[in-house]
Amino acid sequence: MTQNGPKSAIARRGKPTKSKSTESRTLKRKRVEEDLEKLRITIDELDPKSPSLKNFNDLPLCAATASGLRASHFEVLTDIQRAAIPLALKGNDILGAAKTGSGKTLAFLVPVLEKLYRERWTEYDGLGALIISPTRELAVQIFEVLRKIGRNHTFSAGLVIGGKSLKEEAERLGRMNILVCTPGRMLQHLDQTAGFDGDNLQILVLDEADRIMDMGFQSAVDALVEHLPKTRQTLLFSATQSKRVSDLARLSLKDPEYVSAHEEAPAATPTNLQQNYIVVPLAEKLDTLWGFLRTNLTSKIIVFLSSGKQVRFIFESFKRMQPGIPLLHLHGRQKQVARMEITRRFAAAKYGCLFATDVVARGVDFPAVDWVIQADCPEDADTYIHRVGRTARYESKGKAVLFLDPSEEKGFLKRLEHKKVPITKVNVKENKKKSITNELQSICFQSPDVKYLGQKAFISYTRSVHLQKDKEVFKFDQLDLDAFAASLGLPGTPQIRYQKGEDVKRLKNASRMAAISSGSESDGDSDSGPKKKEVVRTKYDKMTERQNQDVLSSHYRKVLEDGEDDAEEDDFLSVKRVLGDDELDEAAGAKEAKVVKLGNQELIIDSKRREKLLSSKKKLLKFMDKPTKLVFDDDGNAHQLYELQGLEDFSKEGPAEKLREKFVEMEAEKVAEQDVEDKQLAKAKRKAKRDKAKARERGELEGEAVGGVLVPQAQLDVDSEEEDEDPLALLRSLPMPDEKDDREEEDDDEPPKKKAKKWFQDDSEDEREKERERKKRKKSGKKVIEMDHEPDNLQDLEALAAGLLED
Ligand SMILES: Nc1ncnc2c1ncn2[C@@H]1O[C@H](COP(=O)(O)OP(=O)(O)OP(=O)(O)O)[C@@H](O)[C@H]1O
After folding, report:
1. Ligand 1 centre from 195 Cα, in Å?
2. Cys-Cys link to 460, which of 201, 307, 541, 737 (CB 3.0-4.6 A)?
3. Are residues 150 and 235 in the same domain?
4. What's a GO cellular component annotated to this UniProt protein (predicted)?
5. Are residues 570 and 481 in the same domain?
6. Tens digits of per-residue pLDDT, 164-184?
């Protein structure tokens, strides 16, 4: 007994603590199980059609979802939410249709969160829910809403929309429970990413389902569904839902509930939307649009156009004419980062005009848009409904105007009537009409790049009309193309060539199919050409691509590569450039012998073999002399890297010893100056390093562990505007947009930070610094242009360049 004494004492000391914590854990687990069981029973007993379901509070939701909804200020259910959520909670497949802006996003996100919660989903269970969107913009928006209402859940969630390296995304996919994606990119991952599959998927959502089931996405969606288990729940939502039996079969829906919140409504569009159309001949369209913008300078406007080229031309030319309202433009050919930034800027703007293609026609929820202008007739009534739906969202009011060419009026009105769209004709006030043809002409004359865009816009517009399948609306033969070209300010009508007997539908979808198969959705842009096979890109290629950021680039590219980006267009319609006399001579001469200048040498191209050489820069280099490095002085004169001064010149400058002393003095001064700069730089670097370390530390503390995996906050912050923001994130650990302000307020206790440095500040220290800088520059003979803000657009850069040219 005595021997056993101490052992038992240890056992007595350790055992109660251990059993206490195990006990509390068991109790907690039991409570969760009981709560879950209660929730399941309430859902079983729930009457999905009960009129008493008015608020989110009336629904059997778990505490995490309920509090997330409350914190996001969602209280009262909208019609579609009241109709769809109870049925979805009960596990039904849903085909949901409701007007634009009526709250369909929550109608599927709430069931998604609830489903995974009730299944007690953890990181180890893999992908539980997949939400598919037709465009990147819409996917980002859905993800944002998911973050808001899912903030108290521990699921991990990610955004898979392309624009990032596949490998980077792939690394985190395995850990994701909920993914919001575009079809092509998702398919790519399911096909290629090792260790990632959808075998366990519980719920699949298709937002803008009719679009996703459409021809352009057909093969991607079918292949994607092949990767998913048939036992899943499926929810389809759209403002314009089709009940095509074939679609339902493709998705293996099981006895789907058709939920239509506004089926009995007299109109397919929101009641608080005022809809008008004007009949305007194609050649007067830009005048009318300009007049409209000039009279609505303090409104928030979206102008829909049929192609990215139209968007670019109108944006660039109107920008030069300075309408007095901020202009933005958005189309599927822009880089992902630019698209996100423009979307963010327009969402935040109080007023401004966004020229856009149908890339933002569906689902995108820009707040407080006053007007939707459809300057180009949409391809069908459904597209019309989605476009106008960007205004008058939820309970707000909005106005929409459709521009119709006289040839389109009768046919399109018939289509709208059929879809229950109430629209009335209005006329533009005479005193608001103004021709801008002269201005456009002079812009085209002054800037070849804009003229080039105009030609492209002309071609893409005529092409899109020609390709439209609804010939009762789009009558290509009745368009006055000469007048249209003149109205764009073009010096002549671009000649176009038709390819007869083409399968129009196939051509129209070619670009989308190609984009999807390469995994990067073009997102509704009708003018995106088929993607080319991956080729090795040289530094030179990258340079021309970089130029592609501005309006001049495609012009340059055209010069360099002649139509590389227009492959699709050239298949069908293209400019037949009439060669000038000089060019004809050149062309004739080209048959005989060509002379290519390589540095100081001339290379005669007189055979096919030599001509082939021109396609390889590497091979051409062999014909050039070895390069020598030159340095340029301030006047732009080239010098050898080391130039020895002649003895005569040297002795003219004074005795050698004196010159040596002078030289040492000058160098010492330079070193001292450089020393100060170096010290400042080193200090700044140390500070940055410290800040980074702190941020990392904070990030690790804030990062939430889900199933034992800790993801540093720095990697998760999708709000960051950095280009390499991480689209994959844990729901719970992300800061909410509205919480950001709170955090900023909390920081008020900290000592006041030094005012952020603008380009030029005027406190005395900075003045002194500026003065020193000025003197230094003066000494070196460099010109300094002072600007009150950083140049962030072409106009700013032009102003800066003009300043530099003036002397
Ligand atoms: N229950 C609610 N209470 C208050 N606001 C809501 C509610 N549900 C949705 N909203 C708001 O209504 C707006 C439109 O919602 P949402 O984007 O889901 O519409 P939608 O039906 O998907 O539109 P679209 O057909 O254009 O995609 C959003 O700004 C959203 O925040």
Report:
1. 36
2. 307
3. yes
4. nucleolus
5. no
6. 778 888 888 888 999 999 999
